[in-house]
Amino acid sequence: MADLNVLRNKIKAKTDALWILQKNRVKKFFRQFYADQHQLTSVTSADRYPELFEEAKKALKGLPSDEIKLLSFGCSTGEECFSLRKYFPQGFIVGADINKSNLKKASDKNTDPWIKFILSNDANLAAEGKYHAIFCLSVLCRWEDTKDVENCEAIYPFEKFEKTVSSLTNLLAPNGILVIYNSNFRFEDSEISSQFEIVSTPSVKNSGFVHKFDASNRKVHQQHKHCIYRKVTKVASAYAS
Ligand SMILES: C[S@@+](CC[C@H](N)C(=O)[O-])C[C@H]1O[C@@H](n2cnc3c(N)ncnc32)[C@H](O)[C@@H]1O
């Protein structure tokens, strides 16, 4: 009887391993069709990051409220934009997503003339002008695909993250902020981060639960704290040599 159990367990271990292998092959095959896409799922909810939204509001204090322009990059079905309106009662909010069906749901729900949903591509994003804040929340990652790996290169490489944060930087107004939460990488590891300063966010204890990787795609085991970065715009000095 004991022998039979050992055999049964061995067969089960083998079939489990084969199943995981097959599942990963299928996932890898489909990934090639989502080359422009970051996070694949569309999970969202109303007021999902209240502390972060409060900190972003604080970071933009001083700007005339009716002139504020915000971008929710990866807005899914719109809840993020509708929630942002609570923190920024005035101003223009743009929601961009790569998924057309999400955008349709978002637009169908929208009754705010100062919230607009657009398909995310370079031309459309740039056409809306410069933003005072760009929110990339639960977008710059592949979760849970990267949950159990020590190296994420084959799933979501650093260069993809870096390319996107660098193009988003070009869309920021002078002294604008980039808000990155639940990403697979630390913004500080990107080259473009040298143009930014970290904004202190005392009420937000870390940059999210999504596992972090370094610029070589290796898992980072330390906690990462920062999630708001301000683009530092140097004023040209009349006395500069
Ligand atoms: C998990 S949802 C996050 C929604 C919302 N930001 C939140 O945190 O509740 C990720 C969204 O990012 C979108 N997304 C993925 N790649 C994108 C890209 N390249 N441009 C714009 N949106 C993208 C997906 O379609 C999906 O709607």
UniProtKB/TrEMBL annotation:
One of its GO terms (molecular function) is methyltransferase activity. Keywords: Methyltransferase, Transferase. One of its GO terms (biological process) is methylation. It comes from the Bacteria. Residues 66-192 form the Methyltransferase domain. It holds the Pfam family Methyltransf_31. InterPro entries: Methyltranfer_dom, SAM-dependent_MTases_sf. This is Methyltransferase domain-containing protein. It comes from Chryseosolibacter histidini. The lineage of its organism: Bacteria, Pseudomonadati, Bacteroidota, Cytophagia, Cytophagales.
